[in-house]
UniProtKB/TrEMBL annotation, chains A, B:
Residues 1-158 form the N-acetyltransferase domain. GO terms for molecular function: acyltransferase activity, transferring groups other than amino-acyl groups. It comes from the Bacteria. Transmembrane segments: none annotated. PROSITE patterns: GNAT. It comes from Streptomyces coelicolor (strain ATCC BAA-471 / A3(2) / M145). This is Acetyltransferase.
Length: 160, 160
């Protein structure tokens, strides 16, 4: 697997799984009807680093972004987002991409990483805790899940 | 004191205390050098409700915004920000404005309010807890305070 910074040419390969994941409404606190144009602006807005993972055939199977979570006096706390093509799940892609982005964040001078809204029923919570993230707190009843009803949103944190 | 929704004419009266508060670098995780144009975009961007409080002479002495904290399946959790002219502090303006905005959020159908980054040395933490907010968690060592060094950022929450 190759992990690298994304180029503008990668977006059309990110969008199909981005759309599928957000439209399912189970893991991201974004509008399930988000248009491709708005999705691109969300994922690749200026000031963000964007990464992709390619499988052995060169197909883009996952993407991540890295950005400051706050500004000014708190700008050394990073935020990131991760999406793995659901058809390619369970092969270690998410873990490899996460480790790559954590290293990149440390190299960029960030002191810690925060995820602001991890749906508590998301299986990825196990990946994050295995990578050293802790749950700082949970916003109760915040997310209307299509199968589980109202669930909480974890705020997760890891020092770098 | 009159509290009302802001108009475009109010911004020039908000900016002087907005600038003073952010330039001090003690309470907001925004760039202390934020330009007036960027500040206006931050405070009054589309989709936000903006409020002002006037004193008995009609002078604008405080402002707040109200906006969804997340999108899509979590859009019923609100976020808000509050600034009181430091020259007018200690007269109950912040509390009156906060109660007004909490009522407005409830009326708009929000289920709860979250503040994402309350500097733990900010005296306003006492106001928020007295209004029923709890500290969900604290991002440690996140904020470089000019007098206190590295301090944490509280994530605060209140059901509506």
């Amino acid at each position: 697997m190759l992990i690298r910074e994304a180029t503008a040419d990668d977006w059309p390969h990110i969008w199909p799984f981005w759309h599928r994941i957000v439209a399912a409404g189970e893991t991201y606190a974004w509008d399930p009807d988000t248009s491709e144009e708005d999705a691109r602006a969300l994922w690749t807005s200026p000031g963000r680093r964007v990464y992709v993972a390619e499988d052995d055939t060169g197909a883009v199977v996952a993407s991540a972004y890295l950005t400051p979570n706050y500004g000014g006096p708190a700008a050394r706390i990073a935020n990131a987002g991760f999406m793995v093509d659901p058809d390619r799940a369970g092969r270690g892609t998410g873990r490899a991409l996460a480790e790559y982005v954590l290293d990149a964040a440390r190299a960029d001078g960030y002191r810690a990483m925060v995820f602001n809204a991890v749906v508590e029923t998301n299986p990825a919570v196990r990946l994050w805790t295995s990578l050293g993230f802790t749950i700082l707190g949970t916003v109760p009843d915040a997310f209307d899940h299509p199968r589980h009803g109202r669930v909480g949103l974890h705020i997760m944190h890891r020092a770098l």
